[in-house]
Amino acid sequence: MGDISALISVSAPPPQQSMPAMLADRLRAAIAEGRLRPGQQLFEQDLAAEFDVSRGPLREAIQRLTQEELLVNVRNRGLFVTTLSAADIEDICRTRAAIERAAGLEIIRSTTRAAAADVLDAIVDRMSEAVARHDDAEVAEIDIDFHEQLVALAHSPRLSRAHRTLVVETRMCLSILEGTEYATRDRITDHHTLADAIRRADGSTFGRLITLHMETAALQIRSAMFPAD
What confidence tens digit (pLDDT) does each residue in 15-64 have? Predict the structure, then answer.
């Protein structure tokens, strides 16, 4: 099933996290980071041995990721990491735009708007430093961090929960695209402009910019992954 040895260093889950939740988090991270590749077949017995756990909690973790559509059970074939189509990429970016627009507007309505903009600007400064170092992987990671923080700063557990699976799917794309033109594209201005719209409490501009940002991302990812389309 490929190399899964990097999936773990297993330790007891923290008190607030069940074993199935911990296993789901580790599998989710392995998919996001490309250690488990799109279309890769997974075998329950191998995963159980690698995690050194019984199959009960592992099956529950697998069920969670199947519900999130990160894993798919194919009848008479087995369990696979999901693959993303061009239509999936469009849908991911469109849904992310809706969630991130809602998060941005919530921040704009809050009393912590300026502080939130400072947090986002600091992330973009880190991105700029990574661009200067030509560290494509770090640029992609910081890009994702910006959008995760944007949603987190809205302090809405439901928005964050809805956003989480979409971010994993986005990371899947970026791990495939590392080293391509998309990975090295300068995204500094876009992100500073988004933070500035929040600072100025300009919800209309923020909504327009995040929609355009996600439409552009969808086009770039789709073009790199499906150049013949």
Answer: 577 999 999 999 999 998 889 999 999 999 999 999 899 999 999 999 99
Is 105 in the same domain as 182? yes
Instruction: Say if residue 65 is in the same domain as residue 101.
Output: no
Cβ 29 vs Cβ 23: under 8 Å: no
The pTM of the full predicted model, rounded to 2 decimals, is: 0.82
d(CA 141, CA 15): 29
Domain containing residue 164: 86-225
Give me the long-range contacts of 112-119 (CB less than 8 A, separation at least 24).
112/153, 113/198, 113/199, 113/201, 114/199, 116/153, 116/198, 117/195, 117/196, 117/198, 117/199, 119/149, 119/153
